[in-house]
Structures are given as C-alpha cells and as structure tokens.
Amino acid sequence: MWRDESATFQVARRSLPEISQLSGSADAVHGVYYVLMHFVLQVHPGEVMLRLPSVLAAAVTAGLVAMIGTRLARARVGLWAGLLYAVTPATGLFATEGRSYALVCAGAAAATLLLLRAVELGRTRDWCRYGAVVGCTAYLHEFAALLLAAHAVTLVVSWRRIDGTLWRAWTVAAAAALTALLPLISLTAGQSGQVAWLEAPGIDSVEELLRTFAGPSPLVVTVVLLLICAALNAPLPRRGRISLGALALPLTLVPPALLLAVAQTTPLYHRRYVLFALAGVPLLAAAGGERCAAVVRGLLQAGQPPHRAAAALTGVAAIAAACLWQLPEHRVNASAAGRPDDLAAVARVAARELGPGDPVLFLPSESRRVALTYPAGFAGTQDLALRTAPAASGTLYGTETGPIELRRRLANLDRVWVLAEPRVTAASWNPRSATEAAKLSVVNEQFVLRGEFKERSGVLRMYVRRAPERPVDWPAGKPVPVVDPVLEVHDRNRARERDQGATGWAGPPGSGAPQGSGGAPGARERLELPPLHPHGTG
C-alpha cells in the first residue's frame, strides 16, 4: 500500500463512532467512503479486499461508457468507447487503488446515463434517480459535483431540443443534490489545510492531465487527439435530444477547467479529483473511429461491401494494439514502483531489524502510518513519542507527548531507532512542532548514528548515545551521568516556581495582599530560558 491507501486501511478498520470522530477533524471528504470500506474490510482486512471495490467500479464504468456510446450513436461506437476506457492506463492505475476515485467515476457515468434517459423520457422518477446518484457520488468526493456543470453545458448546447420543462426538472434535481451536499461542504471547508501541500497548477498540470486522459504514450495521445478532431469536425448523426459531442466534450473539459481555474488562487487541484471526466475521451475517440470507418467504407468498391462485423473487429484490434503498445505503462502501474511510495518495503526492513522492546521515534509523526498499516513489523516495540493512539484521539496518526516529556523518555535510553521519511533527512527540512524539533535536537546532540537502512519510502536508522564528557576531577571508574541541559533548565525553573508559590509575598503592612499569591507584579524573578536550537527550538 502507499500512504493514501494506508489511510483507508487503518481508518476503515475503526468503529463507526471512531470514523465519525475522525471526520469531524480530518478527512471528512472521504468519510462516506471510509464507512463503506468499514463493511468491506470486515470480510477480510487485506490489500485484495481494500482494492476490490475499485476494480469492480472500473469494470462497471467501462460498461456504462459503452452503454452511453450505444445510446448516443450505435453499438460498435459503444463497444469501442467501453474498451478504450478499460485499456487506458489511468483506468488501471486507479482501479487497483484503495481510494474512492474509481467509485466516483462509476457514479458519474451512471448519472450521465440517467441524464440521457431523463431527457428523453421526461419522467419524474428518472430525474429523482439522477439527482440521487449525483448526490451520492458527490458524497464519495465532493468535487464530483462539478459533473453538474458539465451537464449544464450539455443542455445549453442542446438548447433547441431542451424545453422549459426539462430545464426546470434538471434544475430541481441539481439543486436537491447540491443542497444535500451542504453539510459535507461546511465540514470540509474547515479542513482545507489538508490540501495545503498542493500548488497552483500550470501548463505542466494541463499536459499531465492530457497524458492521463489520452495516453500517456505520445503515439497513442496523437492518435486519440486525431480521432477526437475527426469526431468534432464531422459529428455523428444525433439519435435523440442530445448528441454524442454535446455530451462528451463538456464532460471532458468543463470539470477540469473549473478546478484548474479555482486552483489558481486556492490550492485544490489534483488530476485524481477530476478523473471522472476521463469518460468523455473514449466516447469522442470512438466517434472519430466511426467517422474513419465511414471514410474507408466509401473508398471501397460498391460491389464489394465489407462485412458488417469487419469495422467493429478492426476497431477492437486497434484498441488491442494500443493496449499492447502501452503495456510497459500498465506493468509499472501494477507494481509498487507505480505508486508514490511503498510502505510494505519499509515495514519489511523494520520487521528484520527491530526487536521486542526497541524504542522507536517516528519523524515526522506521519511516518507512523507504516506501523499502523503493517503492525507486524513493529510488534513489541515502544513508540516513544505517542501519547494517545489514533483511534482514541480521533486523528489519523495519533497525538504526541510534549517535548519535555519526550526528553525524559529519551534520557535513560542508550539507543533509539528512528523511522524517518526521506525528506526529513535533508538539511533544509524544518520541524513543524516543538515535539518534532525535540526529536531532531536530542537525536543529533545526544546520539550517534550506528546503522542506516534505506528504502524509497523511508529510512530506518539506529542511534546510540554519545559517551558523555568526563570532568577533569571525576573519579576513575565511576560512570558519568547523562545530563540533558534542557531538562535541567526546565526542572530548575519549575523548582523556582514552586518555591515562590509556597513563600508568596505579603505586601506592605495593611495592604491585604494574600499570602502565597505568587508575589507582587514585577517583583518575581525572571525564569531562565533554555538555549535555542539551530532548528528553532530546544
């Protein structure tokens, strides 16, 4: 598993009240998905069950795309579109990931198919189903609500065949879905710091999205773009109120464009957030393939018409060739190398090197995800900084003790293991909390590195305590005690506070100042402060 999957795995195994508690402070956008996965993982908590819903959702989405293509054009267009969606490397990548994005794609495709049915039949129950599916999909990830903008553009483009009754029905369904989403929006608005790591997208983000939707092989991207141009230059005959181009083009462009625009001022964009827009690309490419088939049919001699299945099989063969051409990409996506990190590899190192009772520091605290996801590798070890476990604290990675208490826990240790993320080993890394700074300070100042085991997603280090300096007049053979200067200063200050609180200051005769009040303002002795550490704290 990689880090996002590990969040799904460890949160979904909590009780429902604990998942609700977590959603109040973090990851509310995935709260409904965590509840769903809570029941899935009760069958068997493992990587297969973690990813099975995404695999099934991707298969369902491919079928829905085929149904949309068949409804808007003809059967072989739907066949090509569904197959092309299935063999796109991005589909396979997110189909084997234990996150909600493949399920969002399935919900978006189902809502789009329901829109077509509601527009054609105009029945109230179809509009109710449409609104319900959009609302449920948005609860899996709230950015799926951008699908409504794409559908609105589709209706605008098809305005000649969309009367006022249909507009009112769509408006009511869309408003109902958005109204139902308001509680989630209000909850996630206060958790925007979780995506503060995102940056404003640029042209490179647009190029990445293009490769995700149409490639990523340059040859396949070129062919897909040419097919889309053919479909837009000579649109297929419309079979209902909405044409294929009027549906697929807004679906492909509108959600990403809106999120890219908003993300210029607020960091919100990532390609996975608009993955559901991918369904429009195979529909347009299949329509372009249909136009190419028509051209080829016209070039053949009138006396030798091709077999009815020849064009369909030729398209299938072309899609199979594209799949084989991009097979190396599929292989990478199916391996640990295709993920941002590999927590299992780090856990294997920990299982090999750590023993029962070994003290471990996680730097930063988020690296605790390795132990939470693969606890067998850390069986019997001591988590030195942990104060409250993640489930009990309603957080993703637990709450940690303060820097002084952490120093006390480290004071009597002769060695300590540190599991750190690769970025922490860089000299430019700065800790975000006093406890993180204390970890770094104590390890650097009081311990010496004796062993290091590197993996792509983390590094495990063993530190042993430095031999303390022996004073000139220290007796031979007598061990020199370990002294933490920060703890000494802290304990001395606390002792002064207790002494001053006990003696107090009576004040001038008759002033009525109570004994033990802590002294007159300004008369209290200034407390000694610990020296500053080069990284910003003591």
TrEMBL record:
MF-aspect GO terms: pentosyltransferase activity
Membrane topology note: Multi-pass membrane protein
Originating species: Streptomyces mesophilus
Domain Glycosyltransferase RgtA/B/C/D-like: 37-184
Protein name as annotated: Glycosyltransferase RgtA/B/C/D-like domain-containing protein
GO cellular component, one term: plasma membrane
GO biological process: lipopolysaccharide biosynthetic process; response to iron(III) ion
Transmembrane segments: 48-70, 77-95, 169-189, 209-232, 244-263
Keyword DNA repair part of the UniProt annotation: no
Bias (Gly residues) ranges: 507-521
Keyword Membrane: yes
Subcellular location: Cell membrane
Disordered: annotated span: 496-538
UniProt keyword list: Cell membrane, Glycosyltransferase, Membrane, Transferase, Transmembrane, Transmembrane helix
